[in-house]
Design brief:
Length: 344
């Protein structure tokens, strides 16, 4: 959503800068013309500018906060819907469809309340601006007619003052619309960046070098790990897997089989000990180079929303079509792949 909002935010900012610049140039010119004609004619417009700045200072932070809150709630709603939909088999197996409906409905209700709160702020902002614009046009017209009836200005000055005030009022709505759009998008971006811009907990160490595999020997040296718990999962585990050797890990659920693999892939860092591949400590190598050397067949399958060939080629982007077909045949998947059709 942040990626989708970026272009809209840039467009809103460009439009708002142009609108603000236009209203400043036009407004200052209009005030100068009115002051040159009669200083009393400029009073309503000067008062309007002061009120307009105060209005923006009051409402803009509130619009930003409401937009951020609404974006956060919208993300939660989307997450609940996706969660229920992607786990629909589990929902049906445990007969929890009604509970999931209620779970999503609560998020919809919360989103509705937040949306209404945002719209109330926008409505108050628009109503205040309309009232100010009406006062500007009325005040300028009254001042012009007063000065004309007193013989201080001519009809031409009245004809000049009213269109100037009306144009300022029209432009203020344009500026307000762009400012509102900016902070609606800023709220979405702020919400997204709080998730995206989280510092990596396990980055590559300074000076990390690519892993160089010559034989593929793996060594666990007194490895300890427990996901941050005092009880722990692995306690001083030492294991040697020679190059070309096949090793099966057998144990009860929770014994640490998957944990060993996750440590080897550097999804977690050992709390004690170290892991070596061909004598190289994997804590000192670049993680991308480490995982590029390890093939993993997971228990749960998943597909990217791309072609089957792209999914097969994902582990080796440089593979040609013949190698993709050979891999599908070796996995005994070619027959059913040939029978698939793209209905898009």
């Amino acid at each position: 959503r942040v990626m989708q909002t970026g272009p809209a935010l840039r467009e809103s900012i460009v439009n708002a800068i142009g609108a603000v610049w236009y209203i400043l140039v036009y407004g200052s010119t209009a005030v100068a013309l009115l002051l040159r004609t009669d200083w009393r004619l400029a009073l309503p417009m000067l008062a309007w500018f002061a009120a307009y700045v105060a209005l923006l200072r009051y409402f803009v932070p509130r619009l930003r906060e409401r937009s951020r809150a609404l974006s956060e709630i919208r993300s939660g709603l989307t997450g609940r819907i996706v969660d229920s939909y992607t786990n629909i088999l589990t929902v049906k197996l445990f007969a929890r469809a009604r509970d999931e409906d209620a779970f999503v409905r609560d998020a919809v209700d919360e989103h509705t309340v937040a949306f209404q709160a945002q719209q109330r702020v926008i409505t108050r902002f628009a109503a205040s601006l309309v009232s100010m614009n009406a006062c500007l046009v009325t005040g300028t017209g009254a001042a012009a007619l007063w000065q004309w009836s007193a013989g201080r200005i001519g009809v031409g000055a009245v004809a000049m003052a009213l269109p100037l005030a009306h144009q300022i009022a029209q432009m203020s709505g344009w500026v307000a619309q762009n400012v509102t759009a900016i902070f609606e998008n800023v709220g979405i971006v702020q919400d997204g960046m709080r998730s995206i811009a989280v510092p990596r907990q396990m980055g590559d160490p300074p000076g990390a070098v690519p892993l160089r595999v010559a034989r593929g020997a793996i060594r666990f040296e007194r490895v300890r790990f427990g996901y941050g718990t005092a009880r722990g999962v692995l306690h001083d585990v030492s294991l040697d897997v020679a190059a070309g050797e096949r090793v099966g890990l057998v144990g009860a659920s929770g014994a640490g089989k998957s944990t060993l693999v996750n440590l080897l892939l550097r999804f977690y860092a050992p709390e004690g000990g170290r892991i070596l591949i061909d004598g190289q400590d994997i804590a000192r190598v670049a993680q991308e180079s480490l995982r590029r050397q390890i093939a993993v067949v997971t228990q749960d399958t998943s597909l990217l929303h791309r072609s089957i060939a792209d999914n097969i080629r994902y582990g080796r982007p440089e593979a040609d079509d013949a190698e993709v077909v050979a891999a599908a045949r070796q996995a005994e998947a070619l027959d059913f792949i040939d029978g698939l059709e793209d209905w898009a």
